[in-house]
TrEMBL record:
Protein name in UniProt: ATP-binding protein
Sequence ranges assigned to domain Mg chelatase-related protein C-terminal in this UniProt record: 188-284
Organism (species): Candidatus Auribacter fodinae
InterPro entries from the UniProt entry: CHLI-like, Mg_chelat-rel, Mg_chelat-rel_C, Mg_chelatse_chII-like_cat_dom, P-loop_NTPase
Residue ranges of every copy of the Magnesium chelatase ChlI-like catalytic domain listed in the record: 1-180
Length: 292
């Protein structure tokens, strides 16, 4: 999420666990196990049944984030297992820290090697990151003038570009929210009703992949993408044009198809339609803006 201060990025991130499906017993056991290693469970209600939301500060060390120590301990990526890892002010994180996160993000587990042997911790989490659009925070802010030069903005955004950005499915620009919109009680959809839609879409995916060793669209291999993300010739030509015009990578191409598949699932349609592809392309806005 890219947006000026006060655009509700943190609030949005905190709500994500409330629209995710309830944890299965197996997930609850895994999450509880990791937290108990860190002494983070209380005896009385020892089974953790809600998805984790972890928001480490940008000064965190490599081992704090991915795990480590003489007696290996899980890091934030494992504490966020089955839940959400939120990195606020992404551009402020040490570049190296972001690089060591790539392996757990890709593999869903972390291996910590020591002379005495190696330990594996699970790390399948949803990554959510937020950043201001520029050093002063007000580029594209209708309320305030941005005081940064084009050079400064490019330098700032280039900190988050590259390999990590390429692994993020959805780039979202978040507009500032005025107080009156926040206090307006009408119009918003409740988390509970969004969750119902998510649960339905997940059920469709579980059914789709019943013969594969995966359970959701995000885990599709390129062969599965080919099989389950068929496009009409109109959608295909829109996607080809976007690839060419925006100079998107092969990885971005696959992400667009997976996201479009999910949008169609949320709508309850078997066919991926043109509006689904258009919406998914729109979520690659940072590839377009800062890496070319
Ligand atoms: Zn600025």
């Amino acid at each position: 999420m890219v947006g000026p201060p006060g655009s509700g990025k943190t609030m949005l991130a905190r709500r994500i666990p409330t629209i995710l499906p309830e944890m299965t017993l197996e997930e609850a056991l895994q999450t509880t196990k990791i937290h108990s290693i860190m002494g983070m469970t209380s005896g009385k209600h020892s089974l953790i049944t809600t998805r984790a939301f972890r928001a480490p500060h940008h000064t965190i060390s490599d081992s704090g984030l991915i795990g480590g120590g003489t007696y290996p301990r899980p890091g934030e990526v494992s504490l966020a297992h089955n839940g959400v890892l939120f990195l606020d002010e992404l551009a402020e994180f040490n570049r190296h820290v972001l690089e060591v996160m790539r392996q757990p993000l890709e593999d869903g587990e972390v291996t910590i090697s020591r002379a005495s042997g190696s330990v594996k911790f699970p790390s399948r989490f949803m990554l959510i990151a937020a950043t201001n659009p520029c050093p002063c925070g007000h580029a594209n802010d209708p309320r305030r003038q941005c005081s940064c030069s084009t050079m400064q903005i490019q330098k700032y955004m280039s900190k988050i570009s590259g390999p990590l950005l390429d692994r993020i499915d959805i780039h979202l620009e978040v507009a500032p929210v005025e107080y009156r919109d926040l206090s307006n009680k009408k119009g918003g959809e409740s988390s509970a009703s969004i969750r119902e839609r998510v649960v339905r879409a997940r059920a469709v995916q579980e059914q789709r992949f019943v013969k594969h060793k995966i359970f959701c669209n995000a885990q599709m291999s390129s062969a599965a993408i080919k099989k389950y993300c068929e496009l009409s010739s109109e959608s295909q030509s829109i996607l080809n044009t976007a690839m060419e015009k925006l100079g998107l990578s092969a990885r971005a191409y696959h992400r667009i198809l997976k996201v479009a598949r999910t949008i169609a699932d949320l709508e309850g349609t078997e066919l991926i339609k043109t509006p689904h592809i258009l919406e998914a392309i729109q979520y690659r806005s940072l590839d377009r803006a800062y890496t070319h």
